[in-house]
Design a protein that fits this description.
Two copies of one chain form a homodimer. Chain A is an alpha+beta fold. The first copy, chain A, contains eight helices and eleven strands. At the A-B interface, strand 5, strand 6, helix 3 and helix 4 of A face strand 5, strand 6, helix 3 and helix 4 of B. Chain A binds a DNA duplex through helix 7.
Chain lengths: ~230, ~230
Amino acid sequence: MNRLMKPGARERETLLNSGLLSALGVESVAAMMEIAVIGSLPARQMLFREGEAADMLHCVLSGYVRVYKLDPDGREADVELYGPGDLIGASVVLDGGRYGATAQAAEPSLIARFDLKRVRDIAARRPDLAMALANALSGQLSRVFASLADDRLHTAPQRVAHYLLTHCPADGRAGSFRLPYQKSLLAGKLGLAPEALSRAFSMLRNHGVSVRGRLVHIGDPDALRRI
Amino acid sequence: MNRLMKPGARERETLLNSGLLSALGVESVAAMMEIAVIGSLPARQMLFREGEAADMLHCVLSGYVRVYKLDPDGREADVELYGPGDLIGASVVLDGGRYGATAQAAEPSLIARFDLKRVRDIAARRPDLAMALANALSGQLSRVFASLADDRLHTAPQRVAHYLLTHCPADGRAGSFRLPYQKSLLAGKLGLAPEALSRAFSMLRNHGVSVRGRLVHIGDPDALRRI
DNA sequence: CTCGTTCATTGATCGAAATCAAATAAGACT
DNA sequence: AGTCTTATTTGATTTCGATCAATGAACGAG
């Protein structure tokens, strides 16, 4: 963690709107703000590693954090990608155990960190915080269920098509948008090798999708849904 | 749900030792016991379906519950398998939304159900319950992360070997044990077609594993680890 | 603007597991 | 025990995506 600091006005703002804090009462927000520490991370820096004693809760303010697990041979499998406002679910280790995965900044990022012990103390007297944690986790659990099922049921072009449909701002209509991060990151998030993502994109060109750099144009959303 | 009833002595016992209730204070336990309803399910009966409004929290007392997602063509992908004492994480929908997956009894089962609205009410005044929920969810999240990574990194024989190692009571030593459920269920849990599981078992025969029905004998745990 | 590095695309090959099909084994119920 | 149903195994084929290798494009630093 490069620079450590108390939250400034800008970070406060993001933090207040984050999934974790947005539903809290004022007193719980104050208690959490009290213990928040902001850190800025350069790209590729680790937040925590699989197996380390878990002592911090993390929340992304800006940038993206990639969470992955390692294989004995060093191969990596991404399990989640967290963006601005997200509580890093893999860092919610409430029983004093160890992190079950590694978290790495995928680009320069601003992260809020909370001492887990203190979070536990606050949550033990403030049900709204405990519920906010449970809420965030239940949402993440169902998202992971969705990607697990997606992995097992759909081909690469189908997963990419689904990603595009759910991330295109013009919901249901033709339109353009910009991928929020590198294609290699997207590939990891979708459980694909970068080559497979590339091939999926080129297959989708026959279905009304055009890609130039990070710019994606969807010509026929219905065709995409039928892939 | 076939028979509905208040918990009897036997069910109370299991419930008290379950992941959800075991860490609660006496008053929270009492409050939860108050609203618990026990139901017995025949094999194959659904507890809830993907997309239904979520109004109940479920906890398995006996038997196994398979949670899966459906594909437009009707294909199924198992995302989790819950056994005795497990809180069904997919039924923890705290924001009043809908179930994100379908839950089906894999064999005749006894299930404790709690009205979600009332659980929310209790948790809103009792931090220990909210924390127990968060705890259960964080544990499940990390287990799902593990299976997602396992899926992406390991071959079928490797996943089966890993399963056997972690489920063999004689931890680390040679020994026998009985699979807790049908092989087709295990296949689903591991994200494999039943045929693939069968082939994985026959491959493992060359590595000191013998299988007869549900009976598995592990001759050389170290060999399994090296698969 | 240009160099140099990282990222993305494309091609060729290979391996793993799904799928289809059929035979065998195991259970459940009379 | 005998029958009927459901599980499991085994074989043949096919598809998908990983991997290896090489080229081409994009981007940041000087």
